[in-house]
Amino acid sequence: MPRRQICVTGAAEAPLRAALRALRTELDVPEAFEPEMLAEAERAAREPRQPKQPRQPKQPKLPAYDATDIPLFTIDPPTSTDLDQAMHLSRRPDGYRVRYAIADVAAFVVPGGLLDAEAHRRVTTLYFPDGKTPLHPPVLSEGAASLLPDQTCPAVLWTIDLDADGRPTATDARRALVRSRAKLDYASVQKQLDAGTAEEPLALLKDIGLLREQQEVARGGISLNVPEQEITERDGAYELAYRAPLPADGWNAQISLLTGMAAAELMLAYGTGVLRTLPAAPDGAVGRLRRTARALRIDWPHHVSYAELIRSLDPHLPHHAAFLQECTTLLRGAGYTVFRGGVTPDLTTHAAVAAPYTHCTAPLRRLVDRYASELCLAAAAGEEPPEWVLAALDDLPKRMAEGTRRAGTVERECVDIVEAALLKDRVGELFDGTVVDVQEREPTVGTVQLESPAVVARIKSEEGAGALPLGERLRVRLTQADPGSAKVLFAPA
Known about the structure:
Blueprint: E1 6-8, H1 13-26, H2 35-46, E2 72-75, E3 85-92, E4 95-103, H3 114-122, E5 126-128, E6 131-133, H4 138-144, E7 152-163, E8 168-184, H5 186-195, H6 200-219, E9 228-234, E10 237-243, H7 247-270, E11 273-277, H8 283-295, H9 306-311, H10 318-327, E12 335-339, E13 349-350, E14 355-356, H11 367-381, H12 387-393, H13 396-423, E15 430-438, E16 445-450, E17 456-460, E18 473-482, E19 487-492
Parallel strand pairs: 2-8, 17-19
Antiparallel strand pairs: 1-10, 3-4, 4-7, 5-6, 7-8, 9-10, 11-12, 13-14, 15-16, 15-18, 16-17, 18-19
Helix pairs in contact: 1-13, 2-4, 6-7, 7-11
């Protein structure tokens, strides 16, 4: 999709900021941390401690395992400072070794303390165009607990050995002191990999990433490569653009996915844990997708599986991008499943992953990951989980559902508000777009994706004009753009 950027400046900026303030109020978004919480965070930043295990007589200091000699690196957006993961990749005689360090939040957040209670209230980091509302105070999430380059800090260090085909053969998780050597971003990583100038630990990201993608194909997993709307701020102005993920994004995601799958298998074998689960899509939802494919003139033979079809599509083609966007509806319904005492839950898999999976690689930004890490550490060591972990387990699914729902609302509403601010003074103008969704019960209402600017918004035919042409490229007229209500509406021209 075209990615020409358009900025929110001048008269549009004031209503944008007002609308964002109103959204925070409406969703009861937490404000700044209380002074007592900040003081607790400052103390923890100065003196992190390894959490006490049930059999230990007292709380120990930092981990005894020193892994600072491993030259880890991070891959994140250029401006990110809350770095949850760092990796090092190497070859073995019969395959590969993945070392994946995850920020050890439990070394800084005391169970039952002020920061712990506040994290349970916030649940996730929330991202707004004019700043973020972090799960933990920045002195931790962007400082002492973050895997910043040249900073020694505690982490949960995963070691996952793979065979020559990329299948796991051994897994270990333990607390360690680590030290990242470099903070890389996706664009520079892709450039090095394309040019063949990357040193082996980084060059192996492509090799292992491709092998893991082949494993994903073999098990029937799905990664949707959908162009995303991205809000950025530059020189006090906001921009909205389509961002097509780079191959390096996908290879990096495969390392995180590998760790989440390894963590799920550890917990299942141990008998206590928390999984990220997604049931298989109902037949009706798949049937609707088949009708959408026909309308978009996408050939989907009955002998071709849904996963095979997805991998054959090119997200740069408008009608393929439209179909991929529709496919995201099958990902709704994901949740968290807690189990304990060796009783395996009825649903253990995530349908899109096509395997058991858990969230454990983003503890700076997501509450449940701290608990998953503790359960995996206990499983790997053959010890009992800490009492504070077991006591919080049953409440986690509900709390995560509420937090995830709020985060999703923030993301959708922010994009809507920015779109309305961008287009506020352009009501009546014509744009080129593609109808990417039509409501089955009301075919005169749907969704249009503009070619430029990067807007995805509601479209409604005028009375008597008939059904919207799903998958068709057409000229549309902007009929409404109100940042205060986050409403943007188009009509076929």
